[in-house]
Design a protein that fits this description.
The protein is an alpha+beta fold. It is built from two helices and twelve strands, in the order H-E-E-E-E-E-E-E-E-E-E-E-H-E. It has one domain. Helix content is about 15%, strand content about 35%.
């Protein structure tokens, strides 16, 4: 399914809840573990034509390489992804559908230390366009190894859920080392 930028924005803003065993959850407790790898199905009571996937992946080799991904699940269309400590290259050409905020980053190569956020752009493969987190409204700009890694990870998880409009209340049992 090919969707427009406006449809992607609509899908991001739809209120969603986590589904487990065919039940919509009002609350969800997530146990943080290493490496963290979780997938959650989401649905919207407001528009049940769509199902969604929320995925969080942490690298087994590099514990600070983490990806938070959200997609419309039927068409496998990525809507939003935040990558920490992972490289990426934007397309070399911007069509008329590429929003202005991406224009300075045409062909940009993000190094592993340049945290970035991907958005759906009409007419391109899923989530190939990104901007640096440093210029985006997503509030948590860094994820580094250190004493506060676990709490920062938990906060990013909750912020991402809020950003993609997950109404299920998320709590995280932080990893105890």
């Amino acid at each position: 399914m090919k969707i427009t930028n406006e449809q992607a924005e609509y899908l991001l803003k739809l209120p969603k809840k986590v589904v487990q065993n065919d039940m919509l959850l009002d609350k969800l407790t997530i146990d943080q573990k290493f490496p963290f790898d979780a997938r959650f199905e989401l649905v919207s009571e407001k528009d049940d034509e769509f199902t969604f996937l929320w995925e969080i992946q942490q690298s087994k080799k590099n514990s600070i390489r983490v990806s938070f991904h959200h997609q419309e699940n039927d068409g496998k269309t990525g809507l939003l992804r935040v990558d920490y400590n992972s490289g990426h290259k934007n397309p070399e050409v911007a069509s008329e559908h590429v929003p202005e905020k991406f224009h300075p980053f045409v062909g940009k190569i993000f190094s592993n230390s340049e945290h970035h956020i991907h958005y759906h752009v009409q007419g391109y493969k899923s989530l190939v366009w990104a901007v640096p987190l440093s210029i985006d409204k997503f509030e948590i700009k860094e994820l580094n190894n250190g004493a506060d890694f676990n709490s920062t990870f938990a906060n990013i998880l909750k912020l991402f859920a809020k950003t993609v409009n997950i109404e299920t209340e998320i709590s995280v049992n932080e990893l105890l080392l």
